[in-house]
Amino acid sequence: MSPVLLVLALAVQDTVVLKPVVVTANRVPTPSDAVTAAVTVISGASLRERGIRTVAEALRETLGAAVVETGGPGSQTSLFLRGGESDYAKVLLDGVPLNQPGGAYSFAHLTTDDVDRIEIVRGPASVLYGSDAVAGVIQIFTRTGVGRGVAHVEAEAGAGSYGASRVGGTITGGTARFAYSLGASRFASDGLFPVNSGYRNNVVTARLHVTPDTHTDAAVTVRRGDGVFHYPTDGAGRIVDANQFATDRGPAVAVDVGRRVSGRVEARIQLATAETDSRVDDDPDAAGDTTLIFHSRDRVRRRGAELRANWQAAPAVVITAGVALEDAKLRHTDACQFYSGGSFFDCSGDPMNRTRSTHAVFVQWLGGIGRPLSANVGARLEDNQQFGSFATWRAGGAWRLDDATRLRVAAGTGFKEPTFFEAYSTGFVSGNPNLRPERSFSWEGGIEHTVPGTTLSLAVTYFDQRFRDLVVYDFSRTPNYVNIAAAQASGAEVALDWTARSGVAASLAYTYLDTRVLDGGGDPTFETGKRLIRRPANAATLRLAAPLGRRGTATLGARFVGDRDDIDFAAFSRVTLHPYTRVQASFEYTVLQGRGTVPDLTLQAQGENLLGDTGREIANFPVRGRTLFFGMRLGAGRQGPR
Q: What does the DSSP 8-state code read for residue 111?
Protein backbone atom coordinates (compact mmCIF):
# COMPACT_ATOMS: atom_id res chain seq x y z
CA MET A 1 0.00 0.00 0.00
CA SER A 2 1.38 3.42 -0.88
CA PRO A 3 2.26 5.88 1.93
CA VAL A 4 -0.45 8.31 0.80
CA LEU A 5 -3.13 5.61 0.94
CA LEU A 6 -1.89 4.62 4.38
CA VAL A 7 -2.24 8.10 5.82
CA LEU A 8 -5.71 8.39 4.33
CA ALA A 9 -6.61 5.23 6.20
CA LEU A 10 -5.06 6.50 9.42
CA ALA A 11 -6.46 10.04 9.36
CA VAL A 12 -10.14 9.89 8.53
CA GLN A 13 -11.61 13.37 8.85
CA ASP A 14 -15.24 14.36 8.27
CA THR A 15 -15.19 18.12 8.28
CA VAL A 16 -11.47 18.95 8.42
CA VAL A 17 -9.49 19.19 5.19
CA LEU A 18 -6.52 16.82 5.19
CA LYS A 19 -3.32 18.80 5.75
CA PRO A 20 -0.08 18.36 3.78
CA VAL A 21 1.64 15.09 4.61
CA VAL A 22 5.06 14.81 6.31
CA VAL A 23 6.91 11.47 6.34
CA THR A 24 10.28 12.01 8.03
CA ALA A 25 9.02 13.25 11.41
CA ASN A 26 7.26 9.99 12.39
CA ARG A 27 8.34 7.41 9.76
CA VAL A 28 4.67 7.19 8.72
CA PRO A 29 2.93 9.78 6.53
CA THR A 30 1.40 12.24 9.00
CA PRO A 31 -0.80 15.31 8.41
CA SER A 32 1.33 18.35 9.20
CA ASP A 33 -1.04 19.57 11.94
CA ALA A 34 -0.46 16.31 13.86
CA VAL A 35 3.34 16.62 13.80
CA THR A 36 4.80 17.81 17.11
CA ALA A 37 8.32 18.54 15.78
CA ALA A 38 9.40 21.63 13.84
CA VAL A 39 9.35 20.67 10.15
CA THR A 40 10.14 22.46 6.90
CA VAL A 41 9.25 20.96 3.51
CA ILE A 42 10.89 22.30 0.35
CA SER A 43 9.44 21.42 -3.04
CA GLY A 44 11.89 20.19 -5.66
CA ALA A 45 9.84 21.90 -8.37
CA SER A 46 10.20 25.28 -6.64
CA LEU A 47 13.96 24.76 -6.36
CA ARG A 48 14.27 24.11 -10.07
CA GLU A 49 12.09 27.13 -10.88
CA ARG A 50 14.50 29.30 -8.93
CA GLY A 51 17.62 27.69 -10.40
CA ILE A 52 18.81 26.30 -7.06
CA ARG A 53 21.33 23.62 -8.01
CA THR A 54 22.48 22.22 -4.65
CA VAL A 55 20.78 21.09 -1.46
CA ALA A 56 23.13 23.38 0.49
CA GLU A 57 21.72 26.43 -1.32
CA ALA A 58 18.20 25.27 -0.44
CA LEU A 59 19.09 24.82 3.22
CA ARG A 60 20.46 28.35 3.52
CA GLU A 61 16.86 29.61 3.64
CA THR A 62 15.77 27.13 6.31
CA LEU A 63 14.99 28.21 9.86
CA GLY A 64 17.74 27.30 12.30
CA ALA A 65 20.23 26.31 9.59
CA ALA A 66 23.66 27.90 9.14
CA VAL A 67 25.53 26.78 6.00
CA VAL A 68 29.19 27.67 5.46
CA GLU A 69 31.59 26.79 2.66
CA THR A 70 35.32 27.26 2.24
CA GLY A 71 34.99 29.07 -1.08
CA GLY A 72 33.46 28.19 -4.41
CA PRO A 73 31.56 25.24 -5.88
CA GLY A 74 32.81 21.87 -4.64
CA SER A 75 34.50 23.20 -1.50
CA GLN A 76 33.84 21.82 1.97
CA THR A 77 30.25 22.77 2.84
CA SER A 78 28.99 22.27 6.39
CA LEU A 79 25.59 22.60 8.05
CA PHE A 80 25.09 23.72 11.65
CA LEU A 81 21.47 23.04 12.60
CA ARG A 82 20.10 24.90 15.64
CA GLY A 83 23.62 25.52 16.90
CA GLY A 84 24.62 21.85 16.92
CA GLU A 85 27.88 20.52 15.58
CA SER A 86 28.27 19.95 11.83
CA ASP A 87 27.89 16.19 12.48
CA TYR A 88 24.63 16.57 14.43
CA ALA A 89 22.25 16.43 11.43
CA LYS A 90 21.54 13.07 9.82
CA VAL A 91 21.30 13.30 6.02
CA LEU A 92 19.17 10.71 4.19
CA LEU A 93 18.44 10.02 0.54
CA ASP A 94 15.21 7.99 0.33
CA GLY A 95 16.21 6.49 3.68
CA VAL A 96 19.91 5.92 2.90
CA PRO A 97 22.27 7.58 5.44
CA LEU A 98 24.83 9.73 3.62
CA ASN A 99 26.87 10.82 6.67
CA GLN A 100 30.20 9.26 7.48
CA PRO A 101 29.61 6.85 10.40
CA GLY A 102 29.42 9.17 13.39
CA GLY A 103 30.72 11.99 11.24
CA ALA A 104 29.71 15.09 9.37
CA TYR A 105 28.42 15.33 5.83
CA SER A 106 29.78 17.78 3.29
CA PHE A 107 26.97 19.11 1.09
CA ALA A 108 29.50 20.18 -1.57
CA HIS A 109 28.38 17.63 -4.18
CA LEU A 110 24.73 16.99 -3.24
CA THR A 111 22.62 18.44 -6.04
CA THR A 112 18.88 18.88 -6.48
CA ASP A 113 18.83 16.49 -9.45
CA ASP A 114 15.59 14.50 -9.52
CA VAL A 115 14.53 15.79 -6.09
CA ASP A 116 10.81 15.61 -5.37
CA ARG A 117 11.02 17.33 -1.98
CA ILE A 118 13.31 17.91 0.98
CA GLU A 119 11.99 17.43 4.51
CA ILE A 120 13.92 19.07 7.37
CA VAL A 121 13.01 17.96 10.89
CA ARG A 122 14.55 20.14 13.59
CA GLY A 123 15.14 18.66 17.03
CA PRO A 124 16.39 15.27 18.24
CA ALA A 125 15.26 12.30 16.15
CA SER A 126 17.56 9.50 17.33
CA VAL A 127 14.52 7.46 18.45
CA LEU A 128 13.65 6.76 14.82
CA TYR A 129 17.01 7.29 13.08
CA GLY A 130 19.71 6.35 15.59
CA SER A 131 23.14 7.96 15.68
CA ASP A 132 23.81 11.44 14.22
CA ALA A 133 20.17 12.65 14.48
CA VAL A 134 21.04 14.95 17.40
CA ALA A 135 19.85 18.33 16.11
CA GLY A 136 17.68 17.11 13.26
CA VAL A 137 17.22 15.10 10.08
CA ILE A 138 17.51 16.19 6.44
CA GLN A 139 15.79 13.75 4.07
CA ILE A 140 15.81 14.08 0.29
CA PHE A 141 13.01 12.26 -1.53
CA THR A 142 13.57 11.60 -5.23
CA ARG A 143 10.97 11.86 -7.99
CA THR A 144 8.87 9.00 -9.28
CA GLY A 145 7.31 9.15 -12.71
CA VAL A 146 3.60 9.78 -13.14
CA GLY A 147 1.84 6.60 -14.23
CA ARG A 148 0.04 7.92 -17.33
CA GLY A 149 1.63 5.72 -19.96
CA VAL A 150 3.42 8.66 -21.60
CA ALA A 151 7.08 9.46 -20.98
CA HIS A 152 8.12 13.01 -20.22
CA VAL A 153 11.60 14.04 -21.29
CA GLU A 154 13.48 17.15 -20.17
CA ALA A 155 16.86 18.46 -21.20
CA GLU A 156 18.59 21.55 -19.87
CA ALA A 157 21.77 23.51 -20.42
CA GLY A 158 23.22 26.72 -19.02
CA ALA A 159 26.33 28.77 -18.36
CA GLY A 160 27.38 31.61 -16.11
CA SER A 161 29.98 33.39 -14.01
CA TYR A 162 33.26 31.76 -12.93
CA GLY A 163 33.19 29.58 -16.03
CA ALA A 164 30.17 27.66 -14.74
CA SER A 165 28.33 25.29 -17.08
CA ARG A 166 25.60 22.73 -16.62
CA VAL A 167 23.95 20.12 -18.83
CA GLY A 168 21.44 17.49 -17.80
CA GLY A 169 18.32 15.59 -18.61
CA THR A 170 15.58 13.42 -17.11
CA ILE A 171 12.98 11.00 -18.37
CA THR A 172 9.96 10.03 -16.27
CA GLY A 173 6.94 7.91 -17.01
CA GLY A 174 5.17 4.63 -16.39
CA THR A 175 1.76 3.12 -15.90
CA ALA A 176 -0.65 2.80 -13.00
CA ARG A 177 1.46 -0.03 -11.54
CA PHE A 178 4.92 0.84 -12.79
CA ALA A 179 6.65 4.21 -12.67
CA TYR A 180 10.22 5.25 -13.30
CA SER A 181 12.56 8.22 -13.34
CA LEU A 182 16.04 8.46 -14.86
CA GLY A 183 18.38 11.44 -14.83
CA ALA A 184 21.94 12.58 -15.42
CA SER A 185 23.75 15.89 -15.11
CA ARG A 186 27.19 17.48 -15.26
CA PHE A 187 28.22 20.73 -13.61
CA ALA A 188 31.62 22.41 -13.98
CA SER A 189 33.19 25.64 -12.78
CA ASP A 190 36.58 27.37 -12.93
CA GLY A 191 36.26 28.27 -9.24
CA LEU A 192 37.22 31.39 -7.29
CA PHE A 193 41.00 31.22 -7.17
CA PRO A 194 43.37 32.28 -9.97
CA VAL A 195 45.14 28.89 -9.91
CA ASN A 196 44.16 25.25 -9.34
CA SER A 197 40.50 25.99 -8.70
CA GLY A 198 38.46 23.88 -11.12
CA TYR A 199 35.48 21.75 -10.16
CA ARG A 200 33.30 19.22 -11.90
CA ASN A 201 30.48 17.00 -10.68
CA ASN A 202 28.69 14.21 -12.56
CA VAL A 203 25.46 12.76 -11.14
CA VAL A 204 23.33 9.82 -12.32
CA THR A 205 19.99 9.03 -10.67
CA ALA A 206 17.33 6.36 -11.14
CA ARG A 207 14.15 5.39 -9.33
CA LEU A 208 11.69 2.59 -9.98
CA HIS A 209 8.36 2.24 -8.17
CA VAL A 210 5.98 -0.71 -8.61
CA THR A 211 2.59 -1.56 -7.09
CA PRO A 212 1.84 -5.14 -8.19
CA ASP A 213 -1.42 -5.17 -6.24
CA THR A 214 -3.45 -3.01 -3.86
CA HIS A 215 -1.60 -4.41 -0.83
CA THR A 216 2.02 -4.16 -1.97
CA ASP A 217 4.43 -1.47 -3.10
CA ALA A 218 8.17 -1.46 -3.73
CA ALA A 219 10.72 1.14 -4.75
CA VAL A 220 14.39 1.11 -5.71
CA THR A 221 16.51 4.27 -5.76
CA VAL A 222 20.05 4.53 -7.14
CA ARG A 223 22.19 7.65 -7.14
CA ARG A 224 25.86 7.93 -8.03
CA GLY A 225 27.96 11.06 -7.74
CA ASP A 226 31.46 11.77 -9.00
CA GLY A 227 32.97 15.07 -7.87
CA VAL A 228 36.51 16.42 -8.31
CA PHE A 229 37.54 19.67 -6.63
CA HIS A 230 40.90 21.39 -7.16
CA TYR A 231 41.98 23.77 -4.42
CA PRO A 232 45.22 25.72 -3.86
CA THR A 233 44.69 26.60 -0.19
CA ASP A 234 45.85 25.18 3.11
CA GLY A 235 43.70 25.03 6.24
CA ALA A 236 44.34 28.72 6.91
CA GLY A 237 43.13 29.86 3.48
CA ARG A 238 46.61 30.63 2.10
CA ILE A 239 47.31 29.87 -1.57
CA VAL A 240 50.19 27.39 -1.34
CA ASP A 241 49.67 24.62 -3.90
CA ALA A 242 49.11 24.40 -7.65
CA ASN A 243 48.49 20.66 -7.90
CA GLN A 244 46.20 19.63 -5.03
CA PHE A 245 42.75 18.11 -5.52
CA ALA A 246 40.10 16.02 -3.78
CA THR A 247 37.88 13.33 -5.30
CA ASP A 248 34.60 12.08 -3.87
CA ARG A 249 32.60 9.40 -5.65
CA GLY A 250 30.28 6.52 -4.92
CA PRO A 251 26.73 5.15 -5.08
CA ALA A 252 23.77 5.21 -2.72
CA VAL A 253 21.14 2.49 -3.13
CA ALA A 254 17.78 2.16 -1.35
CA VAL A 255 15.24 -0.66 -1.52
CA ASP A 256 11.90 -0.12 0.22
CA VAL A 257 9.13 -2.75 0.20
CA GLY A 258 5.77 -2.53 1.96
CA ARG A 259 2.95 -5.01 2.41
CA ARG A 260 -0.47 -4.44 3.97
CA VAL A 261 -0.76 -7.74 5.84
CA SER A 262 -4.20 -6.96 7.29
CA GLY A 263 -6.71 -4.16 7.52
CA ARG A 264 -4.74 -2.58 10.36
CA VAL A 265 -1.13 -3.70 9.95
CA GLU A 266 1.46 -2.68 7.39
CA ALA A 267 4.96 -4.20 7.34
CA ARG A 268 7.91 -2.49 5.64
CA ILE A 269 11.45 -3.55 5.03
CA GLN A 270 14.16 -1.14 3.96
CA LEU A 271 17.65 -1.98 2.71
CA ALA A 272 20.25 0.74 2.30
CA THR A 273 23.81 0.91 1.02
CA ALA A 274 26.07 3.94 0.72
CA GLU A 275 29.68 3.75 -0.44
CA THR A 276 32.11 6.64 -0.77
CA ASP A 277 35.62 6.64 -2.15
CA SER A 278 37.26 9.89 -1.02
CA ARG A 279 40.80 10.84 -2.03
CA VAL A 280 43.17 13.75 -1.54
CA ASP A 281 46.15 13.89 -3.91
CA ASP A 282 49.03 16.34 -3.85
CA ASP A 283 51.97 15.55 -6.12
CA PRO A 284 54.97 17.85 -6.67
CA ASP A 285 53.95 20.97 -8.57
CA ALA A 286 56.99 20.72 -10.85
CA ALA A 287 60.27 18.85 -11.23
CA GLY A 288 62.47 19.46 -8.21
CA ASP A 289 59.58 20.56 -5.98
CA THR A 290 60.45 19.66 -2.38
CA THR A 291 57.21 20.61 -0.68
CA LEU A 292 54.99 18.08 1.05
CA ILE A 293 53.86 15.11 -1.07
CA PHE A 294 50.61 13.60 0.15
CA HIS A 295 48.09 10.98 -0.94
CA SER A 296 45.15 9.87 1.20
CA ARG A 297 42.25 7.52 0.50
CA ASP A 298 39.17 6.70 2.59
CA ARG A 299 36.77 4.00 1.42
CA VAL A 300 33.65 3.97 3.58
CA ARG A 301 30.72 1.61 3.33
CA ARG A 302 27.46 1.70 5.28
CA ARG A 303 24.95 -1.12 4.89
CA GLY A 304 21.73 -1.26 6.79
CA ALA A 305 18.49 -3.22 7.05
CA GLU A 306 15.34 -2.25 8.88
CA LEU A 307 12.07 -4.08 9.44
CA ARG A 308 9.20 -2.16 10.97
CA ALA A 309 5.46 -2.56 11.39
CA ASN A 310 2.77 0.14 11.54
CA TRP A 311 -0.25 -0.99 13.53
CA GLN A 312 -3.43 1.05 13.46
CA ALA A 313 -4.42 0.29 17.03
CA ALA A 314 -7.41 2.67 16.88
CA PRO A 315 -8.91 4.99 14.22
CA ALA A 316 -6.56 7.83 15.23
CA VAL A 317 -3.65 5.82 16.72
CA VAL A 318 -0.63 4.26 15.00
CA ILE A 319 2.02 2.23 16.81
CA THR A 320 5.30 1.80 14.96
CA ALA A 321 7.84 -0.80 16.07
CA GLY A 322 10.99 -1.92 14.35
CA VAL A 323 14.42 -3.50 14.42
CA ALA A 324 17.44 -2.07 12.63
CA LEU A 325 20.86 -3.47 11.76
CA GLU A 326 23.83 -1.58 10.34
CA ASP A 327 27.36 -2.50 9.39
CA ALA A 328 29.94 0.24 8.78
CA LYS A 329 33.44 -0.20 7.39
CA LEU A 330 36.39 2.14 6.85
CA ARG A 331 39.58 1.43 4.91
CA HIS A 332 42.10 4.26 5.18
CA THR A 333 45.54 4.56 3.61
CA ASP A 334 47.88 7.48 3.14
CA ALA A 335 51.36 8.16 1.81
CA CYS A 336 53.23 11.23 2.97
CA GLN A 337 56.72 12.65 2.45
CA PHE A 338 58.21 15.95 3.54
CA TYR A 339 61.56 17.51 2.67
CA SER A 340 63.95 18.75 5.33
CA GLY A 341 67.72 19.21 5.53
CA GLY A 342 68.30 17.94 2.02
CA SER A 343 66.42 14.67 2.51
CA PHE A 344 62.88 13.31 2.26
CA PHE A 345 61.28 11.86 5.37
CA ASP A 346 58.29 9.53 5.56
CA CYS A 347 55.29 11.00 7.42
CA SER A 348 52.75 8.36 6.41
CA GLY A 349 50.21 7.22 8.96
CA ASP A 350 49.28 3.65 9.73
CA PRO A 351 46.64 2.09 7.46
CA MET A 352 43.24 1.52 9.05
CA ASN A 353 40.79 -1.26 8.29
CA ARG A 354 37.90 -1.17 10.74
CA THR A 355 34.33 -2.39 10.91
CA ARG A 356 31.59 -1.61 13.41
CA SER A 357 28.08 -3.03 13.72
CA THR A 358 24.96 -1.66 15.37
CA HIS A 359 21.70 -3.33 16.40
CA ALA A 360 18.63 -1.41 17.55
CA VAL A 361 14.99 -1.80 18.50
CA PHE A 362 12.53 1.10 18.62
CA VAL A 363 8.88 1.81 19.23
CA GLN A 364 6.68 4.88 18.86
CA TRP A 365 3.06 5.61 19.77
CA LEU A 366 1.37 8.28 17.63
CA GLY A 367 -2.14 9.32 18.60
CA GLY A 368 -4.77 11.90 17.79
CA ILE A 369 -4.27 11.93 14.02
CA GLY A 370 -7.03 14.11 12.64
CA ARG A 371 -8.10 15.19 16.14
CA PRO A 372 -7.62 18.56 17.85
CA LEU A 373 -5.14 17.02 20.30
CA SER A 374 -2.32 14.80 19.02
CA ALA A 375 0.75 13.34 20.72
CA ASN A 376 3.67 11.01 20.23
CA VAL A 377 6.06 9.16 22.52
CA GLY A 378 8.89 6.81 21.55
CA ALA A 379 12.03 5.06 22.72
CA ARG A 380 15.02 3.32 21.19
CA LEU A 381 17.65 0.92 22.53
CA GLU A 382 20.86 0.86 20.52
CA ASP A 383 23.67 -1.67 20.89
CA ASN A 384 26.91 -0.46 19.32
CA GLN A 385 29.90 -2.76 18.90
CA GLN A 386 32.22 -0.04 20.21
CA PHE A 387 30.45 1.70 23.11
CA GLY A 388 27.76 -0.83 24.06
CA SER A 389 24.11 -0.07 24.79
CA PHE A 390 22.51 3.35 24.74
CA ALA A 391 18.87 4.36 25.23
CA THR A 392 17.15 7.44 23.85
CA TRP A 393 13.60 8.83 23.98
CA ARG A 394 11.34 11.62 22.76
CA ALA A 395 7.78 12.84 23.33
CA GLY A 396 5.59 15.64 22.05
CA GLY A 397 2.10 17.02 21.88
CA ALA A 398 0.11 19.38 19.66
CA TRP A 399 -3.20 21.09 20.34
CA ARG A 400 -5.23 22.63 17.54
CA LEU A 401 -7.26 25.28 19.38
CA ASP A 402 -9.30 26.06 16.26
CA ASP A 403 -8.82 26.23 12.50
CA ALA A 404 -6.43 29.18 12.95
CA THR A 405 -4.20 28.35 15.93
CA ARG A 406 -2.06 25.39 16.97
CA LEU A 407 0.21 24.92 19.99
CA ARG A 408 2.92 22.28 20.22
CA VAL A 409 5.64 21.11 22.60
CA ALA A 410 8.33 18.43 22.25
CA ALA A 411 11.31 17.08 24.17
CA GLY A 412 13.83 14.31 23.72
CA THR A 413 17.39 13.07 23.64
CA GLY A 414 19.82 12.40 20.82
CA PHE A 415 23.22 10.78 20.43
CA LYS A 416 26.15 10.46 18.01
CA GLU A 417 28.66 7.64 17.90
CA PRO A 418 32.39 8.49 17.71
CA THR A 419 34.01 8.46 14.28
CA PHE A 420 36.40 5.71 13.25
CA PHE A 421 39.33 8.14 13.47
CA GLU A 422 38.37 9.32 16.95
CA ALA A 423 38.16 5.73 18.17
CA TYR A 424 40.86 3.85 16.28
CA SER A 425 43.48 6.17 14.71
CA THR A 426 47.15 5.36 15.35
CA GLY A 427 50.50 6.96 14.60
CA PHE A 428 50.81 10.73 15.09
CA VAL A 429 47.27 10.77 16.51
CA SER A 430 46.10 8.27 19.09
CA GLY A 431 42.43 7.27 19.02
CA ASN A 432 40.40 6.19 22.02
CA PRO A 433 38.31 2.99 21.65
CA ASN A 434 36.69 3.70 25.04
CA LEU A 435 34.91 6.86 23.87
CA ARG A 436 31.27 7.25 24.81
CA PRO A 437 28.67 8.63 22.40
CA GLU A 438 28.06 12.36 22.36
CA ARG A 439 24.56 13.09 23.64
CA SER A 440 21.97 15.82 23.99
CA PHE A 441 18.76 16.80 25.72
CA SER A 442 16.44 19.23 23.92
CA TRP A 443 13.01 20.73 24.36
CA GLU A 444 10.95 23.19 22.35
CA GLY A 445 7.59 24.89 22.31
CA GLY A 446 5.79 26.67 19.50
CA ILE A 447 2.67 28.42 18.32
CA GLU A 448 1.28 28.63 14.78
CA HIS A 449 -1.47 31.04 13.79
CA THR A 450 -3.24 32.00 10.60
CA VAL A 451 -5.08 35.33 10.64
CA PRO A 452 -8.76 34.45 10.02
CA GLY A 453 -9.99 35.36 6.57
CA THR A 454 -6.45 35.81 5.22
CA THR A 455 -3.49 33.77 4.01
CA LEU A 456 -1.16 35.44 6.52
CA SER A 457 0.41 32.87 8.84
CA LEU A 458 2.88 33.18 11.70
CA ALA A 459 4.90 30.46 13.42
CA VAL A 460 7.13 31.01 16.47
CA THR A 461 9.28 28.34 18.14
CA TYR A 462 11.56 28.52 21.18
CA PHE A 463 14.14 25.74 21.61
CA ASP A 464 16.77 24.83 24.19
CA GLN A 465 19.49 22.19 23.79
CA ARG A 466 22.25 20.83 26.03
CA PHE A 467 25.14 18.86 24.53
CA ARG A 468 27.33 16.63 26.72
CA ASP A 469 30.29 14.26 26.34
CA LEU A 470 31.48 16.03 23.21
CA VAL A 471 34.64 14.45 21.84
CA VAL A 472 37.59 16.87 21.72
CA TYR A 473 41.21 16.58 20.61
CA ASP A 474 43.90 17.22 23.22
CA PHE A 475 47.50 16.82 22.02
CA SER A 476 48.76 16.71 25.64
CA ARG A 477 46.87 13.50 26.40
CA THR A 478 47.26 9.89 25.33
CA PRO A 479 44.92 8.93 23.78
CA ASN A 480 44.31 12.30 22.15
CA TYR A 481 40.50 12.06 21.93
CA VAL A 482 38.41 12.30 25.10
CA ASN A 483 34.78 12.93 26.13
CA ILE A 484 34.98 16.24 27.99
CA ALA A 485 33.33 19.18 26.27
CA ALA A 486 29.83 20.45 26.96
CA ALA A 487 27.82 23.22 25.30
CA GLN A 488 24.36 24.72 25.06
CA ALA A 489 22.33 26.27 22.26
CA SER A 490 18.99 27.99 22.64
CA GLY A 491 17.02 30.43 20.56
CA ALA A 492 13.88 31.27 18.65
CA GLU A 493 12.62 30.71 15.11
CA VAL A 494 10.03 33.00 13.53
CA ALA A 495 8.37 32.38 10.16
CA LEU A 496 5.89 34.69 8.43
CA ASP A 497 4.14 33.71 5.17
CA TRP A 498 1.56 35.47 3.02
CA THR A 499 0.04 34.89 -0.42
CA ALA A 500 -2.05 37.46 -2.26
CA ARG A 501 -4.97 36.63 -4.53
CA SER A 502 -2.81 37.61 -7.48
CA GLY A 503 -0.42 34.78 -6.59
CA VAL A 504 2.31 37.03 -5.22
CA ALA A 505 3.88 35.27 -2.20
CA ALA A 506 6.09 36.68 0.53
CA SER A 507 7.96 34.87 3.28
CA LEU A 508 10.19 36.00 6.12
CA ALA A 509 12.25 33.66 8.29
CA TYR A 510 14.29 34.80 11.29
CA THR A 511 16.45 32.77 13.69
CA TYR A 512 17.94 34.00 16.95
CA LEU A 513 20.63 31.72 18.39
CA ASP A 514 22.52 31.89 21.68
CA THR A 515 25.37 29.37 22.04
CA ARG A 516 27.87 28.88 24.85
CA VAL A 517 30.72 26.47 25.51
CA LEU A 518 30.22 25.15 29.04
CA ASP A 519 33.42 23.09 29.13
CA GLY A 520 36.04 23.42 26.40
CA GLY A 521 38.01 20.37 27.48
CA GLY A 522 41.33 21.81 26.29
CA ASP A 523 40.35 21.97 22.60
CA PRO A 524 41.26 25.47 21.29
CA THR A 525 38.17 25.52 19.06
CA PHE A 526 36.02 25.10 22.22
CA GLU A 527 36.80 28.00 24.54
CA THR A 528 34.87 27.86 27.79
CA GLY A 529 32.40 30.73 28.08
CA LYS A 530 32.66 31.68 24.40
CA ARG A 531 30.24 31.17 21.53
CA LEU A 532 30.40 28.06 19.37
CA ILE A 533 32.23 29.02 16.18
CA ARG A 534 30.48 29.70 12.86
CA ARG A 535 26.99 30.01 14.40
CA PRO A 536 25.46 33.48 13.86
CA ALA A 537 23.39 34.97 16.66
CA ASN A 538 21.00 36.49 14.11
CA ALA A 539 20.01 35.25 10.67
CA ALA A 540 17.08 36.18 8.43
CA THR A 541 15.81 35.51 4.91
CA LEU A 542 13.20 37.39 2.92
CA ARG A 543 11.70 36.09 -0.32
CA LEU A 544 9.14 37.55 -2.75
CA ALA A 545 7.75 35.48 -5.61
CA ALA A 546 5.39 36.66 -8.34
CA PRO A 547 3.78 34.68 -11.16
CA LEU A 548 4.35 35.91 -14.71
CA GLY A 549 0.93 34.98 -16.03
CA ARG A 550 0.65 31.23 -16.38
CA ARG A 551 4.05 30.82 -17.98
CA GLY A 552 6.63 31.87 -15.45
CA THR A 553 7.78 33.08 -12.06
CA ALA A 554 10.06 35.84 -10.83
CA THR A 555 11.67 35.67 -7.38
CA LEU A 556 13.64 38.17 -5.34
CA GLY A 557 15.31 37.25 -2.07
CA ALA A 558 17.77 38.49 0.53
CA ARG A 559 19.66 36.63 3.24
CA PHE A 560 21.22 38.35 6.26
CA VAL A 561 23.77 36.59 8.47
CA GLY A 562 24.95 38.36 11.63
CA ASP A 563 28.37 38.35 13.25
CA ARG A 564 29.81 35.06 14.49
CA ASP A 565 33.02 33.76 16.00
CA ASP A 566 35.59 31.78 14.04
CA ILE A 567 39.19 30.60 14.28
CA ASP A 568 41.88 32.25 12.15
CA PHE A 569 44.12 29.23 11.64
CA ALA A 570 46.90 31.37 10.17
CA ALA A 571 47.45 32.95 13.61
CA PHE A 572 45.43 30.35 15.53
CA SER A 573 43.40 33.05 17.23
CA ARG A 574 39.67 33.64 17.72
CA VAL A 575 38.17 36.31 15.45
CA THR A 576 34.72 37.81 14.87
CA LEU A 577 33.43 37.72 11.30
CA HIS A 578 31.42 40.71 10.07
CA PRO A 579 27.72 40.40 9.15
CA TYR A 580 26.85 40.05 5.48
CA THR A 581 23.82 40.27 3.22
CA ARG A 582 23.33 38.30 0.01
CA VAL A 583 20.67 39.35 -2.50
CA GLN A 584 19.40 36.83 -5.07
CA ALA A 585 16.96 36.95 -7.97
CA SER A 586 15.63 34.36 -10.39
CA PHE A 587 13.44 34.33 -13.46
CA GLU A 588 11.78 31.48 -15.33
CA TYR A 589 9.49 31.87 -18.33
CA THR A 590 8.09 29.38 -20.85
CA VAL A 591 8.43 31.12 -24.20
CA LEU A 592 7.10 28.18 -26.20
CA GLN A 593 4.37 25.83 -25.07
CA GLY A 594 4.81 22.83 -27.32
CA ARG A 595 2.21 20.54 -28.73
CA GLY A 596 2.59 17.15 -30.31
CA THR A 597 6.21 16.73 -31.38
CA VAL A 598 7.07 20.38 -30.58
CA PRO A 599 8.76 20.64 -27.14
CA ASP A 600 8.23 23.26 -24.45
CA LEU A 601 10.99 25.85 -24.26
CA THR A 602 11.67 27.58 -20.92
CA LEU A 603 14.29 30.25 -20.31
CA GLN A 604 15.91 30.76 -16.93
CA ALA A 605 18.14 33.38 -15.31
CA GLN A 606 19.58 33.54 -11.80
CA GLY A 607 21.67 36.10 -9.99
CA GLU A 608 23.42 35.58 -6.65
CA ASN A 609 25.06 38.12 -4.37
CA LEU A 610 23.83 40.89 -6.62
CA LEU A 611 25.17 43.61 -4.31
CA GLY A 612 28.64 42.09 -4.30
CA ASP A 613 28.88 41.72 -0.51
CA THR A 614 32.35 40.44 0.42
CA GLY A 615 31.51 39.25 3.96
CA ARG A 616 33.21 35.92 4.55
CA GLU A 617 31.60 32.73 5.76
CA ILE A 618 34.92 31.33 7.08
CA ALA A 619 37.98 33.28 8.17
CA ASN A 620 40.49 33.89 5.32
CA PHE A 621 38.45 32.12 2.64
CA PRO A 622 36.91 34.18 -0.19
CA VAL A 623 33.26 34.15 -1.18
CA ARG A 624 31.57 34.23 -4.55
CA GLY A 625 31.03 37.75 -5.80
CA ARG A 626 28.25 38.86 -8.11
CA THR A 627 27.22 35.70 -9.97
CA LEU A 628 24.95 35.29 -13.00
CA PHE A 629 23.70 32.11 -14.63
CA PHE A 630 21.53 31.71 -17.75
CA GLY A 631 19.92 28.51 -18.93
CA MET A 632 17.19 26.88 -20.95
CA ARG A 633 15.06 23.78 -20.57
CA LEU A 634 13.32 21.70 -23.24
CA GLY A 635 10.44 19.41 -22.29
CA ALA A 636 8.51 16.90 -24.37
CA GLY A 637 5.70 14.52 -23.49
CA ARG A 638 2.94 14.88 -20.93
CA GLN A 639 4.13 16.97 -17.99
CA GLY A 640 4.24 15.49 -14.51
CA PRO A 641 5.72 17.06 -11.40
CA ARG A 642 9.08 18.59 -12.28
A: B
